Amino acid sequence: MKTKSRLTKADITPDQEIRLFREFASWSKKRKHEYIKKSPRERALRLKYTWKAWARDKQLAPEGNWSTWVIKAGRGWGKTRTGAEWVIEKAEAYPGCHIALVGRTVADVRDVMIKGRSGIIPISPPWFTPTYYPSKRLLVWPNGSYATTYSADEPDQMRGPQHSFAWADERASWQYDDAWDQLSFGLRIYPSPGVEPQCVVTTTPRNTKAMKLLVKDPTTHVTNGSMYDNQENLAKRFIRDIERRYTGTRLGRQEIEGEIIDDIDGALWKRDWIEDNRLTFEEYPELKRIVVAINPPDNGNTDIEGPAEAGIIVAGLGTDNRGYVLADYSLPGTPNEWASEALEAYKKFEADCIVGEINHGGEMVGSVVKSTAESSGMRHVPFEIVRASRGRQPLAETISNLYQKKAISHLGAFPDLEDQQCNWLQGERTPDRFGACVWALTNLMIMYGSSDAFRTEDIEQIIKKDVEQWDLQLQAG
Ligand SMILES: Nc1ncnc2c1ncn2[C@@H]1O[C@H](COP(=O)(O)OP(=O)(O)OP(=O)(O)O)[C@@H](O)[C@H]1O
Ligand SMILES: [Mg+2]
Q1: Distance CA 91, CA 346 (A)
Q2: Which of 201, 266, 351, 477 could form a disulfide with 290 if both were Cys (CB 3.0 to 4.6 A apart)?
């Protein structure tokens, strides 16, 4: 059947029209914009909002019988845009369908997947823009299709609801694999007879078991991509920043090329030591001590591009004398900002104390925490100093030994911390989260841990075991 094309005003079939869109997509950005400028409004709008007229081939859903389409690509490749466009296409094609939108955190779903530059609302055509009800975690399209938003750090939200389609953004950075399991269980409503439910995963990859399993699954279709595939659409400054940060570094292949990178020769940590002992929140024992360790931003570290971050790690000592990494609150910011964040963590986890390391601004950390606590009306915040008498290297080695001996578990995944652990070579400066994690576990496992089973022989020389405590004795009003 012939239809009147709004693109060409000629009588052509839908297939021919798609071919025209794909031809348009192959033009340079400049030529496209010039053509649109000269086109009548209706045609210009249609072109502007037809994804097939812009997407690179790899950004269009593959043919075939896949259940999950994993787009594993470098920074800025267009992952989020591709996921959002796919969701819009499904919402339009299957009126009334229910879609799950899952991001790493509540803020990521709202600010990246829905309202961000490549998110669903800004890229939707005016005639098919969904209404967003943030308090109901709902997007509703004019044809009755609707999407519910979920945060991967609250996997319980996904227990129960059922969907026909799902989009999971930055899957490799989710803290809990349980979120993925719940999402998969709920993906079981046929959008129409004979059409299977499907999920799109868009992510910069990480070397995690979950990621490797997903990529290996025979029902998964994998698309790989490099940041440079999308350079035409990226600000030069963005590319320069990423290159400055990652070119020539071990993480470059992951962050720019989207490759899953293996263990690094000579690194103190192995991925398996973390993976094999990873636990969920249901699995960890009672904790007899919890600390929040701070490694202040290393502003003098010229290896780090972009704002230096304060490493803030929460960890606990179990009644089984094993160590548990509970949360990563690290952030870039002023001393007041990172101290407030650490105090938030201190309150939330009802921690026993805040920890700093003497050679890493420990005393400064103590005073900043003290003044911030005072100004927020907190009365009593114990602060302890870790003192590595033979430097931080033997200390990091000791903690990595504890990981190897299965004495430490991460509760969920902390991708940024784990990247730092598995990429750190001796002699390099200690990155933010990594340092904080070492100080926290030193305090718990070595200064307070009671089991000799996990002690290394020369522990006595490595750290001074007598605990230096500062009771800040705050005089808050
Ligand atoms: N085919 C395309 N045509 C035009 N613009 C595109 C195309 N693909 C992506 N873009 C644009 O490129 C920019 C980066 O895309 P997007 O935010 O989706 O990348 P990303 O891979 O999710 O990045 P990040 O790694 O930062 O999460 C956005 O402005 C997006 O709209
Ligand atoms: Mg993105």
Answers
A1: 43
A2: 351
Q: Which pLDDT belongs to residue 462?
A: 44
How far apart are the C-alpha atoms of 127 and 114, rounded to whole Å?
17
Same domain, 200 and 300: no
Question: Which residues have CB under 6 Å of ligand 1?
Answer: 54-56, 59, 75-81, 117-118, 204, 230, 233-234
Q: What is the CATH number of the domain that holds 153?
A: 3.40.50.300
Average pLDDT over residues 460-464: 44
* Atom in ligand 1 nearest the alpha carbon of residue 83: 18
Confidence of residue 117 (pLDDT cuts 50, 70, 90): very high
CB-based contact 450:380 (threshold 8 Å) = no
Same structural domain, 225 and 302: no
- The verdict on 13 and 93 lying in the same domain is no
Q: Which of the two residues, 238 and 303, has the higher pLDDT score?
A: 238
Nearest CA to ligand 1 atom 6: 233
pLDDT at 307: 63
Neighbours of 26 (CB within 10 A): 10
Classify residue 476: in a domain, yes or no.
no
pLDDT interval class at 207 (50, 70, 90)? confident
Residue 471 has a pLDDT of 42
Nearest ligand to residue 227 Cα: 1
How remote is the CA of residue 355 from the centroid of ligand 2, in Å? Answer: 34
Give the helix/strand (H/E) hosting 147. Answer: strand 146-151
Distance in angstroms (rounded) separating the CA atoms of residues 73 and 259: 7
Using the 8-state DSSP alphabet, how is residue 67 labeled? S
- CA-CA distances (angstroms) from residue 10 to 42, 45, 330, 452? 14, 17, 58, 82
Question: How many Å lie between the centroid of ligand 1 and the Cα of residue 316?
Answer: 40
Nearest to 330 by CA among 451, 187, 440: 440
- How much is the pTM? 0.82
Q: Are residues 42 and 69 in the same domain?
A: no
- With contact defined as beta carbons under 8 Å apart, do 87 and 130 qualify? no
Helices (H), 271-377: 271-275, 335-348, 362-375
**Would residue 459 count as lying in a domain?**
yes
Only one residue has tokens 């548990």, namely 324
Please tell me whether residues 437 and 344 are part of one structural domain.
yes
